[in-house]
Write a structure and sequence with these properties.
The structure is a single chain. The protein has a single domain, classed as Rossmann fold (3-Layer(aba) Sandwich). It is 23% helix and 14% strand. The strands form two sheets. The chain has a three-stranded parallel beta sheet.
């Protein structure tokens, strides 16, 4: 989808983050979603050559997906390419792969809402499992931070 499509993650990031800061990032690596998935993924794979993320800012879906890494999807097993097409029921998607995302100095999850409480429990208290892709994504050389509201944290075992 083009960058001005209301479903575009780029448009969301632009309106909620980029348009609100005085100093723009030195680099923005936008996925060209207006291309077909395979072409956009191949182009993005090349664009990410030599790029190491400082921050991988992640959400979490109620099904445990993060980025466009969905439960049991072939993209979870990709170790060579930096970006892949990730077809899904709603729209053709492109996603960075686990090796690229986990190489970030910081992986930051922001999760809100009770609809995601079970996914939070499985992703952050369960064992790594491709059924819950977010359980597979942690920073390998830095830190992983998880920010939750009370509703999203409701099913976590607090140790008591």
């Amino acid at each position: 989808m083009p960058p001005d499509d209301e479903r575009s993650n780029y448009l969301l990031a632009k309106h909620t983050l980029l348009d609100r800061i005085d100093r723009q990032p030195a680099e923005i690596h936008r996925i060209r979603g207006e291309l077909d998935g395979e072409t956009a993924a191949a182009e993005y794979h090349l664009e990410l050559d030599g790029v190491t993320l400082g921050l991988a800012f992640q959400g979490l879906g109620p099904d445990g997906h993060t980025a466009s890494l969905f439960p049991l999807a072939p993209a979870l097993d990709e170790r060579e390419r930096r970006a892949v097409a990730a077809p899904h029921e709603d729209v053709e998607r492109v996603t960075m792969t686990l090796p690229v995302l986990s190489a970030a100095a910081q992986v930051l999850y922001l999760v809100l809402g009770e609809k995601k409480a079970e996914a939070v429990r499985l992703a952050f208290q369960g064992d790594p499992d491709p059924v819950v892709p977010a359980s597979l994504l942690r920073s390998t050389h830095g830190e992983t931070i998880v920010l939750l509201d009370r509703a999203a944290a409701a099913r976590l075992d607090n140790g008591s």
